[in-house]
Structures are given as C-alpha cells and as structure tokens.
Design brief:
About 35% of the residues lie in helices and about 15% in strands. By secondary structure, it is an alpha/beta fold. The protein has a single domain (about 5-280), classed as Rossmann fold. The protein has a 7-stranded mixed sheet with strand order 3-2-1-9-10-6-7. Strands 4-5-8 form a 3-stranded antiparallel sheet. Helix 2 (about 55-65) packs across helix 10 (about 265-275), helix 3 (about 80-95) packs across helix 7 (about 190-200) and helix 7 crosses helix 8 (about 215-225). The termini are far apart. It binds glutamic acid (GLU). The site of glutamic acid (GLU) has 7 residues, from loops.
Length: about 280
Amino acid sequence: MASSPTSTRFAPSPTGRLHLGHAWSAAIGHALARSAGGRWWLRIEDIDTTRCRPEFTATIHQDLAWLGLIPDDVLVQTSRRDAHQAALDRITDMGLAYPCFCTRADIAAAAQAPHGAQAVYPGTCRNLDRAEATARARAEPHAIRLNVAAAVQRTGPLHWREGNTPTQADPSIAGDIVLARKDIGVGYMLAAVVDDAHAQITDIVRGRDLLDATPTQRLLQALLDLPAPRYHHHRLLLAADGRRLAKRDRAETLHALREAGIDGPSLAARLAELPPHGPDLVFHL
Ligand code: GLU
C-alpha cells in the first residue's frame, strides 16, 4: 500500500506572542517535512475568538519568516466552521454527545480539583433526563460534551503511534471532553482532528504539554473514520530560572529575540538539531 507523503503542521493559537518553545516545535516539524520531501503546514488555531487577536496572527507570520521557516500551506481554523459542525453533528447522530449546562465553578466544585489544577469533568450532565436536557438546551446556553465511556465502547481499545512505538490510548484520563464550547460553539479537540485530517497530516510534532490530549484525539479520529497520524511529542524548553516558557513573558518572545538582532535561520537550525527527548531543558542562545 502506498503511504501518504509526509505532512506536518505547526498549530499555534494567536493568543499571544510565540516563544522559543514554539520555534522549536516549528523547526522540528519543518525539518521532518523537508527531509522527507513533504509539506509543512501552518495552522492558525483561532477558534477561540474571545482570546485570539489578529495582531498575534501577524506576529506568527513575521516570526516564522524571521526564522526562515516558510509554510507550504496555511489553514485558518475559523474558516473551517462548517467542517467542524459537520463532525459534531456526526458524533451527535451516533448518540455520543450530550448538552452540559455546568459553569466552570460547578465543575471545579464537583470535581474537587486541587487549587489551580485542571478539573476533569465529573459527568454531572451525562445522566440528565434526555427530554429535559433537550428542552433546556433549546432555552439555555450550553456546551456539548462527548460521552467518552460510550464512545470507547463503540471503538474498542485504541492505540496511537508515538514515533514508531504503539502506545495505548486511555481517553478516560481527560474525562467527557467538550466537543463544542458554550461561548464559541466549537472545541479545540474536535477542530484539531478534523483539520489534521483535512490537511492529510501524517506526523504531529508538538510539546509534551499536549500529551494528555492525544488519547482523546485518537478516539475522535476513530469515531470519525479519520486516519491516525504519528505523534512526536518533544520535551519543553525552560526559562533560565527553570520556569516553563509562557506567552505572557514578554522578554522571552521570538519578537524580542528578533528585535535584539539574533539571526533567525541559525537559531532555527540549532533548534532542529536539539535532541527532542529527555528532561525539559534551558536553551542557551
Ligand atoms: N494550538 C495549540 C497550542 O498552541 C497546539 C495544538 C496542537 O499542536 O495540537 O498549544
């Protein structure tokens, strides 16, 4: 069977300026695509219209141009609303989705998450009476969640490939994830898998902070009959004081390095050579 040509993507959200960790993901994905004669996509993950800003999209383009990483294709996620909705409808028609009326505070209280931790949804609205939930959904704003246990029953056990290693996927770790947010009508997990398949992405390169999203994304791929890409989660870069790099730290953005006169292509080349596995590390410019 002919395998698809290698395609990778860099998928930043324009909610702030990119930092060195983003440049690293982009450089690894770009090098992987180039070495295989494949394609490297830029996907602007702008579905969260409450937080994304056009000026950050503009800086993403400028930062990548400065690094010398030029995408072969660009996909803007907000242009894909119909495809996201079609996927949501499909899962709803399978009877695997339900409306959720909980607020963030409700969920945190019910899940008793430790302070600051991301609460796993305890399933409060999963067992609402169906007629009552449908009636409420007509009148009240709500999110739509995936019934993960029922979905897993339908697909059976799943694996994803981390590099060449088959890895068992346990989607229950993330709980009944949001397929469509109350405020924006779509959710990251669903949009990501639908758009990865649309671009025929074969290899997903991203930081290991997104590792926990992978079992759920594998489940959504299986439900929607989408191909299973290979994943390459890399370790994270740390600031000099050992903190994780964050978009809010202005001094460590690519924009700041660009303004400081650092040579972008040499930086990208050095990052692409950095071993992706091992403990998180401080990168010295
Ligand atoms: N947009 C996500 C982020 O900026 C990345 C999503 C992904 O690579 O799947 O963290």
